[in-house]
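Treating backbone geometry as a discrete language has practical consequences that deserve illustration. The sequence in question and its structure tokens are set out directly beneath this paragraph.
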Amino acid sequence: MIGDGRPYPDHGLSHREWARIPPRQIRLDMLITTKAVLDLNSLLAKDSTFYGDLFPHVVQWRDDLYLEDGLHRALRAALHQRSVLHARILELEK
């Protein structure tokens, strides 16, 4: 599902705080993206996660799972015909 923006409240997590959340498996078909634009240069770059987290960031809010960071990694997984992805999932209060 494609969204445009973040419908959930600002969580204020830093990259270091995200790194403390252990990755879990999540099905790709359960994710709602928060970005409507895909940058093909980022998708095709071999080192696209060199400076970032290896795991996508997902926010669970109101029973939905929003892909906040990692759209290109999720798309690469789908293109490789994988149905699951390891991601860090932040559960926000309802």
